[in-house]
Amino acid sequence: MDEEHNIIMVTTNYIPGKKITRIIGTIWGITVRSRGLGGNIVAGLRSLAGGEIKEYSKMLSDTRNTAMERLRDAAEQVGANAVIELRFDSSDIGQVMTEIVAYGTAVVVEDVSSDIQRVGLS
Fold first, then answer.
1. Which entry of 6, 78, 81, 117 is 20 to 30 Å from 17 by CA?
2. Number of C-alpha atoms within 13 angstroms, CB side, residue 57?
3. How many domains does the chain have?
4. What is the pTM assigned to this prediction?
5. What does the angle CA 2 – CA 33 – CA 44 come to, to the nearest 5 degrees?
């Protein structure tokens, strides 16, 4: 859970110990990034040697984090305290830009009452 925003974000369709009291709907956080000419040249030179291209890995990691922050903001704006079924999608725009979308279902959850007795089978 993100303590700063108090938004629970999970890839599952449920949250252990919580019950969904309201489904708000699909929300998303979108960002588009470009590496820039200098970064593309450095990454291109590194690709000649093979292996990981750390410049692109860092850019994509930062871009995913930005998309997640925007998804959290969207959840707060619609009154959700959780996002279930969190997913990512990406696509290229032209040859120099990458779009990252974080999306999921905004919901309101509350703790499962501890006063419910569980009935076991004998």
1. 78
2. 6
3. 1
4. 0.76
5. 120
- The span from the CA of 51 to the CA of 53, in Å, is 7
- The pLDDT of residue 113: 73
In a domain, 29, yes or no: yes
* CATH number of 74's domain: 3.30.110.70
Residue 92: helix, strand or coil by DSSP?
Answer: strand
Which helix (H) or strand (E) segment is 101 a member of? strand 97-111
Query: Would you say how long the chain is, in residues?
Result: 122
CB–CB of 72/7 below 8 Å?
A: yes
pLDDT in tens, 49-66: 666 777 778 888 899 999
Q: Is residue 7 classed exposed, middle or buried when 0-12, 13-18 and 19+ CB atoms within 10 A define those classes?
A: buried
